[in-house]
Amino acid sequence: MKSSGIFCSHEGNPDLYGLGIRVGIYLQLTTAILAKYFHKEAIPENLNVNVIFLLAVFIAAITATTGTGLRPEEIVIFLQLCFGFLFSVLGLLGGRQPQGKCKTSHGDIGPADMASFFRLTLTTAICVYAVWFWFLGKDKMRTTGCPAYIFIFTKVSIYGGVRLFFQSSSTMLAIVMSALFSLQAFDMIIMSHAISRLFSMALESDLANIVTSLLRFGYWKNFLYSINISFFFLTIVSVELTLRWNNITGVYNIRSTGQLIPFVISLIRLLGLSYAIFVGEQ
Q1: Distances (CA, A) of 270 to 23, 58, 184
Q2: Could you tell me the sign of the dihedral formed by the alpha carbons of 158, 163, 169, 171, in that order?
Q3: C-alpha closest to that of 273 among 19, 64, 29
Q4: I need a surface site. Which of 78, 87, 100, 124 has the fewest CB within 10 A?
């Protein structure tokens, strides 16, 4: 760490959030968005890959929290990437793809149900971790006396009033996701999908049909698309500005194998999907 007056900089960890890892994640988000809107046959595969990437980022955040002595703004980068996945391509609840069912003693619980439940579990864990970080974790992490900034449509201090915003928003998300997690777990283990059947009956009601009809209008679809795209760009801007404003160095090149692997895999996936969209369908 170097400090001169009000200028501070420190060496980042390229194996955790280096350029290759960040660009690899951005490329995967791009691939998922293209699949969602232009090549729906690729959605199930990309949904699974998104979960793998999200799980890897979350595990990295947990590992960094317990063993590497990262600063709070570095953990914020992980949270920005996690919620970037959730709000741009995965959704808080994820998506369920038809994959068949397998009979169990508790009813028809198939691979699609277990995959959906796993995504819900992962989302809930991320939200709970965010609550811990903003209430307790941030104050327990290594600090140097240097200012720390993040992007919330402007440059704000991580130690200022924005903390209250993240405390309240993460708490609300954690409460909602924990309730949904408990409900689905209870439904799968005890009720044999009784609650799911009630939801299905509700979805077949007249009111649900009216809402569905409204959502089919192009304006609503365009609005939802714009939300996804906005969070995609917001994620990139937030992460890169957080790195820049906090003068984190050593994370702007691709030199290690740990960075090359996610970068190359994501690049190949994007090129393959682009070929299928723009060339394969001609």
Answers
A1: 12, 23, 34
A2: positive
A3: 29
A4: 100
Overall residue count recorded for the chain in this entry: 282
Question: Using one digit for the tens of pLDDT, what is the confidence trace for 106-165?
Answer: 455 566 667 888 888 999 999 999 999 999 988 877 666 788 899 988 999 988 888 999
Closest CA to 55 of 36, 81, 30, 27: 81
DSSP-derived secondary structure for 126-155:
HHHHHHHIIIIIHHHS---S---EEESSSE
Helix (H, G, I), strand (E, B) or coil at 102: coil
Nearest to residue 86, comparing CAs of 78, 137, 171? Answer: 78
Model-level pTM greater than 0.70? yes
Quick: pLDDT tens for 30-59.
999 998 888 888 888 888 888 999 999 999
Region of 94 (left: φ > 0; alpha: ψ -120 to 50; beta: rest) is left
Contact 70, 13 (CB under 8 A): yes
135-139, 177-181, 223-227, range with the lowest pLDDT:
223-227
At which residue do the structure tokens 């409204």 appear? 214
* Percentages (nearest 5) of helix, strand, coil residues in the chain: 70, 5, 20
